[in-house]
Amino acid sequence: MANTLPQVAGYVLKRGRTPGFGRSTPTSAAGTAVGRRNVGVPNPPQWHPQHPPGYGGQFGPPPVPPRPRRRVWPWLVPTVALIAVAAVAAVTLWGSGESEATASASDAESGDAPAGEGDEGAAEGNWVVHTERPPEEGGITAWPVGDTLVRVAESRVAAFSQTNGELVWEITAPTEGAVFCGPGDRVVNDQVALAYGPGAVGDPVECDTVSVLNVASGELGWAQPVGAPQDTDGARDSVIPEIVGDVVVIAQDQGMVGLGLADGERLWEQEVSYQGERGCGVSDMLATDTQAFIAQDCTLLPNEVQFKTVDPATGETTREQGYESEDPDVRLRFPRLLSADPLIGYMSKGDGILLLALGSEMEPLARIEAGTEEAPEELGLGSGGWGRHLSESEHLPLPMVASEDTLYAVTLPQGDEVGEVVAYDLATGEKRWTSGLPDAHMITPVATEDDELVVVAGPTAENLDLGVTRFDTATGEIVSTERSPALTETGNTPMLTQFRYFWVNDRMHGLRGSPSETDADRFAYGG
How far is CA 338 from each of CA 185, 399, 444, 493, rounded to the nearest angstrom? Predict the structure, then answer.
């Protein structure tokens, strides 16, 4: 019988175990085979180095035409280092480092110093806060919650006011000598799943307990041991816990567990497998209200990665698909998930990155490459200083935004060029448009609203104010750019690629991941 399965840009979707871009296998049950400790994911380098005092950030203002000066972009690390970034892009996206000040009723009492309050010419409502933090502290993730910004670091979880950046509440791990090691990606009804375990900040942690955190009040609920099935001995230093309906689904390397959201009751446990074969480990998980999506790889399939869906009520696999390059010299490795809705997976492909828009059957609908021989244009893949570098399995998102039909990213500036925004069609993988300002770098897309894409814009050579640029999502035409001051204590702009951004109530908020003695810890501008 002739092969009638779809061609996908040089790869073919095939059945069975022959080489091909992928294969899809529905299953009625999974998790019956014994998994293994996930191997092949290195501890990635920190490619966002600290900079000397006075440095205005990786995306400082570009040269003034017509006499441009060539600059070195530390987080771009041309060619060789960029290859390293792409190769481990699935491992450390949103990098390491973040630490909070001591507990207090306000940031002023805990040593946090708002910069620029009352400064002549400062925009009303703008604020910049500095905080002393241990250099080894790691920031893991963050969310906007009500009128606060909540940040999870290894030693504590803290909420900051969106109005002025002051500390609202903070908590530490509930057991002595423990640190946080694995938060969920989604906040559901002001709740998020959160893991912790014994260990020291910056060191490997036995991530063995899961709880539920109320991110509005800072209160932790029930606590239960993870106890996921594992084929090899040894502590696991991270987990991925996600709230899916009324279940907390936990993925930890070779095993998965389901706990009741209301009381932590143990509902099920499964071993991670592929087509009933043992030796697989979870590398990432995202969820919607009804499904959990898994990215994994297997010891016996070193050149292949897999994506699958899991029923939160039972832990059984409902659909799984493997992906393998037809070119034996080009490996697909380090699978991760960018988005659950729309469903987008990604992985390293040789020296670059490959993103896949996946359908309901986990089939590839479109593919987008960057930094490869076929698609040499390089995209921003930096971690932004967020995430636990020591973790084996944890969701660490790329600095990209996905809407229902479009993926938005930023290009890496080459030489004297500025970084621009690029939009890809998720139905075809084709580039829709590229756009940007002639005199400022586009730092990262943040949100879409009212058919417009909201992007953080860097300063210009003439103006250190930070920008919010809006693009028409259909055409890439620039709708507007508004600028506001947000300077650090040294009079420089923050190191913009070291922050995670939230667009809330027409204001841009930034939270820093990795610690810095001279840079801001958090700031807000615009509005």
Answer: 11, 9, 15, 29
